[in-house]
Amino acid sequence: MFENNVFKVDLNDYTKKYILAMFPYPSSSGLHVGHLRNYTIADAIARYYRLSGFNVLFPIGLDSFGLPAKQYAIKTNNHPKNFTLTNINSFKIQLKKLGFSFN
User: Fold this and answer.
1) How many CA atoms lie within 13 A of 64 on its CB side?
2) For residue 25, how many C-alpha atoms fall within 13 Å in the half-sphere facing its CB?
3) Where is the Methionyl/Leucyl tRNA synthetase domain (predicted)?
4) Is residue 85 predicted with pLDDT exceeding 70?
């Protein structure tokens, strides 16, 4: 949906809201139920404000650095760069299938 600009935001609109959910760290094979819980709550809030006439910016990003990436690299005996790019792609596919309204 976000590829078709369904949730495009006019940054000059004074009725804007900014909603940010936690960034997942792509140091596992996929999203878990904790991610889904938090994104579902944030998505419901973003949709509520959109339906209330607000111009909502609801971005998503990935936290690809730090201790979780290092621990996963050690656990899988793989360089962080290798699995991070693969897992980011996997996370994007999962998030897209779930239909969240990220910008």
Assistant:
1) 15
2) 12
3) 18-102
4) yes
